[in-house]
Design goal:
The two termini are about 30 Å apart. The protein has three helices and no strands. The protein has one domain. The protein is an all-alpha fold. Helix content is about 70%, strand content about 0%.
Length: about 80
């Protein structure tokens, strides 16, 4: 058992040096939540303005834009440590 503990300690140190388990930068969490909130606000503005905002030329594609922005935030959650 002592051998497996020693091996895992070495691999943990190697991963930390390699940057794989390093904590995220301080800006990561606000940007992640920012994307999710901006996407949500985009969709809310679209519905509240009765499809005249945020970009009238896009029409109902504004919903896809809002979900796309939120999706970027959700993808960032997979890299959050």
């Amino acid at each position: 058992m002592a051998r497996s503990t020693k091996t895992s300690t070495k691999s943990d140190a190697a991963q930390t040096r390699g940057g794989e388990d390093a904590p995220n930068p301080i800006w990561f969490k606000p940007v992640m939540f920012g994307f999710m909130l901006v996407g949500l606000l985009w969709i809310i503005v679209f519905y509240v303005s009765q499809t005249s905002l945020p970009i009238p030329q896009l029409g109902t594609w504004n919903i896809l834009v809002g979900f796309g922005i939120m999706f970027i935030g959700f993808l960032m959650t997979t890299r959050w440590r």
